[in-house]
Amino acid sequence: MSEKNENEMAIPKELMTPAAQAYMNAQLRETIAAMFRELAPTLQSIALTPEKIQAMEDARRAPSDTQVAHVKREERERAMQREDIETARKQRETMQNNCPHKYPNGLLALATISNRPDRQRLLICLKNHCLIAPGMWVVGPPDKDNPRGRAYFDKPHPDYARLIREYDTAHSGQ
Ligand SMILES: [Zn+2]
């Protein structure tokens, strides 16, 4: 199936000898080798080295200025939110510490919570939601040694004994 290309030059007969062929092959090899020797610096400079690939990948993955600004704004907003929550917590604490747990007419503003498994009664203030608890075991948030939460004994509220007596006295006549 080999068709002779019309443009192909016929090889002169005197060049078909093995010696001439060997000579031409050697010449060709030398020419190609010389060409590559000359090109070597260029080839080296355009070669994709691991360092270059890493640099391109780093550039591609680097966050843009907009993304950086976005993250910074979110951080600022979260910090402000944490501050607000902390301020509100302190205000509530102060209010509850100063709360008499009584209505203006002198009646106790307390109710009991008695659905605990240890059958102890907790007092809750209906004015400021103060929780006045006896000493009790509490399961706190988990940490690395206690994946199901860390149990600890919570000390009684300093006014619990007095207030539960007042509560029982107030409700004994009913
Ligand atoms: Zn109260």
Describe this structure in words.
Helices cover 50% and strands 10% of the residues. The chain is built from four helices and five strands; from the N terminus they run αααβββββα. It has helices spanning 18-46, 50-61, 65-97, 160-172; strands at residues 110-113, 122-125, 131-132, 136-139, 151-154. The strands form two sheets. The chain has a three-stranded antiparallel β-sheet with strand order 1-2-3, with helices on one face. The radius of gyration is 44 Å and the shape is rod-shaped. The protein starts with 17 loop residues before the first helix and ends with a helix. The model has no long low-confidence stretch (mean pLDDT 90). Zinc ion is lined by residues 96, 99, 101, 125, 127-128, 130.
List the helices and strands and how they pair.
Blueprint: H1 18-46, H2 50-61, H3 65-97, E1 110-113, E2 122-125, E3 131-132, E4 136-139, E5 151-154, H4 160-172
This protein binds zinc ion.
Zinc ion is lined by residues 96, 99, 101, 125, 127-128, 130.
Bound molecules: zinc ion
SSE order, one letter for each helix or strand: HHHEEEEEH
How does the overall form come out from the CA principal axes? rod-shaped
Looking across the biggest beta sheet, what order are the strands in? 1-2-3
* Total count of strands: 5
Mean pLDDT: 90
Query: How many whole angstroms does the radius of gyration measure?
Result: 44 Å
* Structural classification: mainly alpha
Total helical elements = 4
Proportion of residues in β-strands: 5-15%
Work out the helicity level: 40-55%
Low-pLDDT runs of 5+ residues are none
Distance from N terminus to C terminus (CA atoms, Å) equals 118 Å
Largest sheet: 3 strands, antiparallel
